[in-house]
Amino acid sequence: MSGPLEGRIALVAGATRGAGRGIAVELGAAGATVYVTGRSTRARRSEYDRPETIEDTADLVTAAGGQGIAVPVDHLRASEVRALVDRIADEQGRLDVLVNDIWGGEKLFQWDTPVWEHDLDNGLRLLRLAVETHAITSHHALPLLLRHPGGLVVEVTDGTADYNRDTYRVNLFYDLAKSSVLRMAFALGHEIGPRGATAVALTPGWLRSELMLDAYGVREDNWHDALAREPHFAISETPHYVGRAVAALAADPDLARFNGRSLSSGQLARVYGFTDLDGSRPDAWRYLVEVQDAGKPADVTGYR
Fold first, then answer.
1. What's the pLDDT score for residue 109?
2. What residues contact residue 120 under an 8 Å CB cut-off, 6+ apart?
3. Which pTM value belongs to this model?
4. Cα(209)–Cα(269) distance, rounded to whole angstroms?
5. What pLDDT, on a 0 to 100 scale, did the predictor assign at position 48?
6. What are phi and psi of 100, to 5 degrees?
7. DSSP track, 217-275
8. How far is CA 92 from the centre of its chain?
9. Which residue numbers in the chain have pLDDT < 70?
10. Which of 7, 108, 186, 227 is the most buried (most CB within 10 A)?
11. Is the dihedral of CA 276, 293, 296, 226 positive or negative?
12. What's the pLDDT at 1?
């Protein structure tokens, strides 16, 4: 059986691991052809020095039912991004979904450190990786996406517009990076909306990425063991959950109603009815405000 995205072409920029990998796989599960990019390959690792590679992601996309195509790209290098888009144009003649998930900042920011004490080079590189990469990719990819009506651009960030407006996020550099991506989606909505496409900002909740699982010393199959250390981790979600959010958006013929908006995986699960892998629908951002940030004991009743 063909999926709802059969014949659609997607580019997930920053798909080596985490949300990007989950999004790429779920687009594949819906039948899409997905170009997955990043700097970690089987031949060479990025400075993360992690085992995940874009080839692995592409294989997962294909195994899920789509076609995964891995292309090594440093999205800070405009020439590489331009060559990537030229290749997609030559091979497919169209681009229907662009997901800007490039990040790469986990090793660059210092928690709760004021700007005058934070390493300046690391902070500025974080901004380049989190913001400049998205702008470069949109600059080169959007002309191809706009060739056909109905295209979707997803700017992946951390936090909803409402939450980030009222909440200090880690430090100046991190706060600025995540808020900038929210604003990029809003601005792109104004630029591509009148041209027949839709741009949104999308945030997962507390993501059980490969890095997060390692930080708690657990695997996906025993992640509940981390609750002894951090009870609020009970609201966490897999990368597939935000992936299903993107796939649902891309398949929605009434997608334009979300143009320029800030969305979350939990919010869209209520709209479209999809679930996480365990059948639950975690609503992390409502939980953070009403339970965790309010200083209440961990209790996910009514939130997943």
1. 87
2. none
3. 0.97
4. 19
5. 85
6. -90, 95
7. T--GGGGGGGGGT-GGGGG-B-HHHHHHHHHHHHH-TTGGGGTT-EEEHHHHHHHH---
8. 23
9. 1
10. 108
11. positive
12. 52
Of 54, 12, 56, 55, give the one whose Cα is nearest residue 33: 12
Please report where in the chains the tokens 């594949």 appear, as a residue: 28
Q: Which amino acid is at 146?
A: L
Domain boundaries, the chain: 9-220+239-285
Contact 244, 282 (CB under 8 A): no
How far apart CA 24 and CA 247 sit, in angstroms, is 9
Beta bridge partners of 34: 10, 68
- Read off the DSSP letter of residue 51: S
Put the strands of the sheet holding 152-156 in their side by side order: 67-72, 33-38, 9-13, 97-100, 152-156, 198-203, 262-264
**C-alpha to C-alpha distance for 268 and 3, rounded to whole angstroms:** 19
If we measure between CA atoms, which residue out of 31, 93, 34 comes closest to residue 64?
31
Phi-psi region of 29 (alpha: psi -120 to 50; beta: other; left: phi over 0): alpha
For domain 9-220+239-285, give its CATH number from 3.20.20.20, 3.40.50.300, 3.40.190.10, 3.40.50.720. Answer: 3.40.50.720
Residue for token pair 């039948």: 31
Look at residues 292, 260, 246, 225 and name the one whose alpha carbon lies nearest to residue 61. 246
For residue 28, what are its two tokens?
């594949």
Q: Kindly compute the dihedral angle of the four CA atoms of residues 141, 142, 147, 152, in this order, to the nearest 10 degrees.
A: 110
Q: Residue 220 corresponds to which amino acid?
A: E
